[in-house]
Amino acid sequence: MNDLLPATLHTVLEHHCHDGTRLVQILRETQDALGWLPPEAISGIARAIGWPRAKVESTAGFYSFFHTRPLGRYRVLWSDNITDRMLGSTDLMQAMCEQLWLEPGRVSEDGLVSVDTTSCTGMCDQGPALLVNYRAVTRMTPERVAEMSALIRREVPLGEWPIAWFAIENNIRKKGLLLGHSLAPGEALTAALARGPENMLAEVKAAGLRGRGGAGFNTGLKWEACRNATGDAHYVVCNADEGEPGTFKDRVLLTSYADLVFEGMSIAGLVTGAKKGLLYLRGEYRYLLDPLKSALATRRAAGLLGENILGTSFAFDIEIHLGAGAYICGEESALIESLEGKPGKPRIRPPFPVTHGYLGQPTTVNNVETLAAACLIAKHGGAWYAGHGTAKSTGSKILSVSGDCARPGIYEYDYGVSVAQVLADCGADNTQAVQISGPSGVCVAADEFQRKIGFEDLATAGAFMVFNNSRDMFEVARNFAHFFAHESCGFCTPCRVGTAVVARLMDKLADNHGSPYDIDEMFKMHRLMQETSHCGLGHTACNPLFDTLKKFRPAYERRLQSLDYEPAFDLDAALSQARQMTGRDDAGAHF
């Protein structure tokens, strides 16, 4: 490996022009070549980009997919999302460890293999899923575990493994405005160029398009603020870091609708005055990197990217940055920090990215689905788009449906569809709860299934996780608590400590060692994190606890050993306090 180091670093650093803002990509490509990031590699990179070594090491240590110690030639990461657990991932992972003679989270004595968990691989519709050297494998079974273990023991290269294992299905079950579009590449961009930047902005505002990543901010207002901001350059960033458990719609859009996404980025560039776009792709979707680069090359060859696009003076191009395993990078300012080569920790705002974003310049950050929807508006106009959905939630929404249903996958509806309708379409029976918008969202019980998907009622980034009457909703909330504890970036003490405390207290209850005092402590953590956390992760981390305790109280009560305690906990009073704090009947705000 020492022989490879100088040549590897030279090649990687030359490719990235010794630019420290591209450090995440430099580290990834170095690790690809060496298998890990040895100390001498970190030192060499620091010298080459002119950064302090501690700064480079900070970035290398922040992301889950970077390794500053060897983790085996085969690195297996099982998805620990609740839907994968419901499909038996825990037992399958244990079986693999037994067959490979190692403990979870440890490297085998011969340095061959390590097996561990990761939060969610974005394959919730075809689990149990895992990553092998960051390549996704879906639909794991006991038979496949045995075959995979044998291949690892024989040290068979991944390129010789059964190709069918790496097949990823789209599972598009219902198409609507976006998924059923008939636009040819360049058609929407041609229409946008014909309208001109100001008129195109007016159409987006007339359409009432709001962000599809969960927050729901008005897209036209965001683009206008970026357009009007003063800077040396303007940027368009596509947030393709969908790390929320239960969400996989962006994966499908990038697989089969990449042209629409890239065209939407180009339209955003036209409106905002940007000449460069950056697509931030989550590390779990690494298998999409080469196909997306190929799609960009095709668009450049067709005159849809680069200089003088479609024979006009408009110039715009796009590059892809691959993340390295950090849920927090779904927050737009943390994503920008990562694009600049730093740990993905949210910035203090204001200033906002539209005025001080990537490299301190005006930047609009939009979700994959939002940018794709802009193409429909460019072609058909804002009034046409606003004619679908509801008054406050125009257009359509793509839902990622997983869990206890016969037909998990992608469903697109005009806004205003009821939870009950989605459940009927996906073949869900005996449903007791649906988690809308992932752990940071809202859990709705059976008596709420007539509620509607939309910003007026149930806003969502896209996750729609179904739980039938056989599921223990306490265990669902416990899995979500561990997710937040694992994904906290550690920037602020309330979130760093609070999420860990809540996860430990949930474990204590699970082991039948809990008391009403423990639930009271969790509500104190909820109130503390709501008031003092730096970003939305801490604000929403206790949402699953709040919702499930309110709506599935027996799941908690049967775990309480309260005979030896004076019951100091008043659940109804605590729920009332939490409602007053959040200003809603349902806990939390969208991250």
Name of the top-level CATH class of the largest domain:
Alpha Beta
- Our count of domains comes out at 5
* Shape-level CATH architecture of the largest domain: 3-Layer(aba) Sandwich
Major β-sheet profile: 6 strands, mixed
- Overall average residue pLDDT: 93
CATH topology of the largest domain: Rossmann fold
Radius of gyration: 24 Å
Residue windows where pLDDT falls under 50 for at least 5 positions? 562-568, 584-591
* Cα distance spanning the termini: 42 Å
Q: Give the name of the CATH superfamily of the largest domain.
A: NADH-ubiquinone oxidoreductase 51kDa subunit
Q: What's the β-strand tally?
A: 14
Structural class: alpha/beta
The percentage of residues in β strands lies in 5-15%
Explain what you see.
Helix content is 43%, strand content 13%. It has helices spanning 4-15, 23-34, 39-49, 53-62, 82-86, 89-100, 142-153, 187-195, 197-207, 219-228, 249-256, 258-272, 289-301, 332-339, 368-380, 382-386, 419-426, 473-487, 493-510, 516-532, 536-540, 543-551, 553-557, 571-582, and strands at residues 74-79, 113-118, 130-132, 135-137, 172-174, 235-240, 276-281, 317-322, 363-367, 396-403, 409-414, 431-436, 442-445, 463-468. The strands form three sheets. The protein has a six-stranded mixed sheet with strand order 5-11-10-14-12-13, with helices on both faces. It has a four-stranded mixed sheet with strand order 2-1-3-4, with helices on one face. Mean pLDDT is 93; it is low at 562-568 and 584-591.
